[in-house]
Design a protein that fits this description.
By secondary structure, the chain is an alpha+beta fold. It has helices at 3-9, 29-42, 86-93, 121-130, 133-141, 151-165; strands spanning 50-56, 62-68, 71-73, 76-82, 96-103, 108-118, 175-189, 197-204, 207-212. Strands 1, 2, 3, 4, 5, 6, 7, 8 and 9 form a nine-stranded antiparallel sheet that branches.
Length: 215
């Protein structure tokens, strides 16, 4: 083993900030998620809204990327992207995904799994119109996940669409929201001696079943 690998293998951390018990956790996973997200916001940790999205393509190879959560309620978890991107194409062929939030400073992880669908055109339009102008132009300028010859392509595209649409770019037809409808949640709280707290929620006959998992 190389010295660099050895130094990584020797990294250790004792998790001692909090605990997660059945008696204090919410019976509804969405409400538990809201509680933890609000605590992450109050703690002012970097980008508490960042989440990993994992999808699986037709070749059965999983892929992940970081996106930003933009809405959540009883109907699901929402983010926005280019539908022609790799994740968009994978979700078109296999409409299931997994999400993960990692709030390092709070020693917490939330994992969410479920079916994915596109949000309505009205929802996508409303969110797109709320974005800064450069982000709206960027949605037109970037052929997301496609090979390009260099950054100059993006700059030229941004100039082209900026001149074309000025201050009122419409939402591109290839851009919009996805909503993951959860059927499984897991809340992980780091604990001392690697005896972490893991509470899992699975949907069964319309009701959430809460169970403790071994760490």
């Amino acid at each position: 083993m190389s010295s660099l690998s050895s130094s990584i293998a020797d990294l250790r951390k004792s998790y001692e900030r909090a605990e997660l018990s059945e008696s204090v956790s919410n019976a509804n996973p969405l409400q538990q998620f809201d509680q933890w997200l609000q605590e992450a916001l109050r703690a002012q940790i970097p980008e508490p809204n960042a989440m990993t999205v994992a999808t699986v393509g037709g070749d059965m190879r999983p892929s992940t990327r970081i996106v930003l959560i933009k809405a959540y309620d009883e109907s699901g978890i929402v983010w926005y992207t280019n539908y022609d991107s790799r994740k968009g194409q994978q979700l078109a062929g296999n409409p299931f995904a997994a999400l993960q939030f990692h709030w390092v400073e709070l020693e917490r992880v939330v994992r969410i799994e479920g079916r994915v669908e596109k949000v309505s055109d009205e929802e996508s339009d409303a969110y797109f119109d709320s974005r800064p102008l450069d982000s709206r132009i960027g949605a037109w300028a970037s052929p997301q996940s496609q090979v390009i010859s260099g950054r100059g392509v993006l700059v030229a595209n941004a100039a082209k669409y900026g001149a074309q649409f000025m201050l009122n770019p419409p939402r591109p037809p290839h851009w919009g929201g996805f909503r993951l409808i959860p059927d499984r949640w897991e809340f992980w709280q780091g604990r001392k001696s690697r005896l972490h707290d893991r509470l899992s929620y699975r949907l069964e006959d319309g009701a959430w079943i809460r169970e403790r998992l071994a760490p």
